[in-house]
Predict the structure.
Amino acid sequence: MTPFLAELIGTMILITLGDGVVANVVLQKTKGQNSGWIVIATGWGLGVAVAVYMVGAISGAHLNPAVTIGLAAIGKFAWAQVPAYLAAQMLGAFLGGVIVWLAYLPHWEETPEQDGKLAVFCTGPAIRRPLANLLTEIIGTFVLVVGVLAILRPENMVANSGFDKGFAPLLVGVLVWSIGLSLGGPTGYAINPARDFGPRLAHALLPIAGKGGSDWSYAWVPIVGPIIGGVAGALFFKFCW
């Protein structure tokens, strides 16, 4: 498997499990309907861990343009590889959105709320104030990138024990779980441009009964915010550790 394919598949699995848990909670007549925010945050955290386990050894499991660009900004990833990684992540996220649509096919027409249908695919603010929403995404992604780089430092792992490879993806999932529980309320914590844009595009293109618009006027926030936060987090790590 090439790194491109690994990033595509890993991001696809991430979105399938992440958007899938949102669908399970917000769509009508599912087994998990109305099970709440902690279920959504837990599903996303576990989804990240599973995706990292699947492709981490092949591509490094960035699964997120903010991570890829942040690592490139501090010299931990080659800029020449960035376009391919970003393309794979966007395509994988789009395909993940399509898979969730298929998995919950009978439930779209049973769900009258347009906002709920959109929320399955992409993020939206609890209070629409673009600059405040942007700041929330910057902070969340800053914590994500600093956390990944700091937690997974070799000093925190038992070298040559297998513990580093076996436990590291779970720690990344715990970090995303923590961000969701603590910082996810204002915007739904995209913290990943691909996670938001790819499924949002799927929402726009798929034949979803009574879906409404895809809220493109907000779509810049979960793209620009995570990129700023990812680069800032990487630079902070570089100069502080």
In short: The chain has a mean pLDDT of 96.
